[in-house]
Design brief:
alpha/beta, eight-stranded parallel β-barrel, about 20% strand
Length: about 260
């Protein structure tokens, strides 16, 4: 048996983020013909070797309709899905574990139906926000159940498996890593990232499944290349750098700089 054949099972077992990728929270309304997302389209298309996990969030979740009917949202998601280096995940709020599990699962089921809408808006995974970091059996069971439901409900194919992202926004118990593909271990300002030495706090065995989302990036006051290089050298799974804490303001230069550095 040849070496590459022996390596195939190992490669297929690797997590989604075996090298630094971009976790992109796309919460901004796309505008007419998705024109407000044009900088995102340009950055994705001009960096074909960079993997983008794009968080789709029409209305703090999928909304109440079976699938989007807004032509601007349909146009935007279809465009995102047209790129080979993107993976879309749907935003679902968990309320730090307090939101009713039936309501959370209903949001997951809503995203799952998008693949049958007739448009190219299929969602390939779920981004669970406000994940509780309580180190209790009840909390572990709760999020294990949510992740299992997502994986069993979302459509998948040989080229696109269901991705589960957990976002507690700060250091999570190691047990939670068993249920997700990517964990957002930090979601805060650039100033706090610099002062807290986050990368040194993540155990080496989990850093490849970890992500950071940094906002309030100073204009001209941060070396994006050096910042990204440090993350890549540490083996971090994914990163996002932005100016706005709510992810509704884009800086084309920062987005391009981030993609160039990755």
């Amino acid at each position: 048996m040849k070496l590459h054949q022996l390596l195939i099972p190992f490669i297929l077992s690797l997590p989604f983020c075996f090298s630094l990728s971009i976790l992109l929270p796309l919460y901004l309304y796309p505008g007419p013909d998705a024109s407000a997302w044009s900088d995102v389209f340009s950055t994705i298309s001009s960096h074909p070797t960079v993997q983008f996990t794009v968080v789709i969030n029409p209305n703090s979740g999928p909304g109440t309709a079976s699938y989007p009917t807004d032509p601007n949202i349909i146009a935007g998601i279809s465009k995102i899905n047209s790129y080979p280096n993107t993976h879309t995940v749907g935003y679902v709020l968990t309320g730090h574990g307090s939101r009713d599990i039936a309501a959370v699962n209903a949001d997951v089921d809503a995203y799952a139906k998008w693949s049958s809408s007739g448009s190219n808006i299929a969602i390939n995974g779920i981004y669970f926000d406000e994940v509780s970091s309580e180190a209790t059996s009840a909390n572990y069971d709760h999020y294990q159940s949510l992740a299992a439901h997502a994986r069993s409900s979302m459509p998948s194919s040989s080229s696109s498996s269901t991705q589960v992202v957990f976002n507690p926004g700060y250091r999570a118990p190691e047990q939670l890593f068993a249920y997700c593909d990517l964990m957002v271990e930090f979601e805060d300002s650039y100033a706090n990232y610099q002062s807290q030495n986050i990368l040194t706090q993540i155990p080496a065995s989990f850093v490849g499944k970890s992500a950071v989302q940094i906002y309030d990036m100073p204009e001209g006051g941060a070396d994006v290349g050096a910042l990204i290089s440090g993350m890549a050298q540490a083996g971090l799974g994914a990163v996002y750098l932005g100016r706005d804490c709510c992810y509704k303001v884009w800086d084309r230069g920062l987005l391009e700089g981030m993609a160039n550095a990755v």
